[in-house]
Amino acid sequence: MLLPLNDRKDLLPFVHKLIEKCTEPYWLAQEKISPSVCVGISMCPDDSSQFGALIQHAEAAMFEAKQQGVPFRVYHQDMHSALTQRLEIEQGLRRALEHNLLNVVLQPKYNLLEGKTIGYEALVRWHDANLGTVAPDIFVAVAEAVNLGKQLDRWVIDTVLQQLSLWQKAGLQPPPVAVNITSKHFSDPELFNHIMTKLQELRLVPSSLQLEITEGVAMDKSPTTLINLNAFRSAGIKIAIDDFGTGYSSLSYLTSLPIDFIKIDKAFVQALESDHNLSLVKAMLAMAKAITVQVIAEGIETHAQQQLLASLGCDFGQGYLYAKPTSLADIEQQLISVN
Ligand code: C2E
Ligand code: MG
Ligand code: MG
Known about the structure:
Elements: H1 11-22, E1 26-28, E2 31-33, E3 39-41, H2 51-68, E4 72-74, H3 78-98, E5 102-111, E6 117-128, E7 132-134, H4 136-145, H5 149-169, E8 177-180, H6 189-201, E9 209-214, H7 215-218, H8 223-235, E10 238-244, H9 251-254, E11 261-264, H10 266-269, H11 275-290, E12 294-297, H12 303-311, E13 316-317, E14 326-327, H13 328-338
Parallel strand pairs: 3-4, 6-8, 8-9, 9-10, 10-11, 11-12, 12-13
Antiparallel strand pairs: 1-2, 5-6, 5-13, 5-14, 6-7
Helix pairs in contact: 2-3, 5-6
The structure holds ligand C2E and magnesium ion (2 copies).
Ligand C2E binds near residues 136, 180, 300 and 320.
C-alpha cells in the first residue's frame, strides 16, 4: 500500500487504524475468525526513492515484526543485513533440500533410574559451502517463515524412517525415534497420511516413530491439530510437547490433550539450584503425574541435575551428560554392539 503523507506524525495513527480494521473479528461458518496482521513500513525519500528498494525495506520490516511478534515495524538500516542473511539462508536451504545436503543426527533419551536408552531424538544439521554451519534454531525459523517447514519436516521424517527400515532389515532393533515438527505443519491434514504411507511402504510399526511439537502448537485449538493428535494417538505414534514451560499455556487445556510426554525445557533443568525453578519443575512433575503423562528432562549436563531429577520422580532425561547428538553411523555401531 502506497500512502501519501505530508507529515511523519500522521503515520502511526494511520497504521494503528489500519491494524484495527484488518484485525476486526468476523464469523465464517459459525466460527469466529480473529485475523492477525503484520505490517512493515518504509518511507520515501528517507529510506530510498526507488520503488523496488522501498518494497524490499518494507518487507524486511515486516519480517522483523513477525519474528518479534509485534503488529508493525518501521524500517531501519540494520534490517537490511538481516534480510540479506535470511534470503541467503532461504536460497541455501532450498538447494540443500533439493540436493539432499542436510544431515540427521540422533540424541539418545535415557531412563533416569535404569540408565537405559529408551529412544532417540532426530536433530537436523546443515553445513553449507558458502554459509558454513548454520544452527538449526536459525534455519528452522527461516524455513517456517518462508513456508519451507513442511518440506523440511518431510525430509527429516523420510530420512529417519528410511534409516530405521535399513536397521530393521539388518536385524538391529532400534528404539523409537522422535522427529520435531515445525509449528504450522502439525495442523496439516496431510501429515498423518504422509507418515502412515511411509511407515507402510517401509514395513515399520507406527510406534517406531514419535513426534515432538511445541506448546504453542498444542495450544492452537485448531480442529485439524486435535484431529491429528487423536489420529496419531490411535495409530500408536506417541507425541511429546517440547520445550515445556517456556510458553504460557493454559494447563487445564493442555491436560485435556491426548499427549504422551512432556519435555521440560533445558532452561529449567539448568537452573535447578534456584528455588523458583525447582518449585516450577516439581509442579510440572506433579501435573504430569496427575494426568499420567511421562516426563523427559532436556539438557541434563551434570550428575547433580540427573540425581535431583530422578529423586523428584522424573522418568526420562536427555542431555550432554549422556550423549551429544550423534551421527547415524556411530548410532549404528552402538546398535550393533548391544545386539
Ligand atoms: P529441541 O527440539 O528442543 O532440541 C534440543 C536442543 O538442545 C538441540 O539443539 C540439542 O542439540 C540441544 N541439547 C541437547 N542436550 C543438550 C544439553 O545437555 N545442553 C545444551 N545446552 N543443549 C542440549 P539443536 O540441535 O541446536 O536444535 C535446536 C532446535 O532446533 C530444536 O530444539 C528444534 O526446535 C529445532 N530443530 C532441530 N532439528 C530439527 C528438525 O529436524 N526439525 C525441526 N522441525 N526442528 C528442528
Ligand atoms: Mg525437540
Ligand atoms: Mg526442546
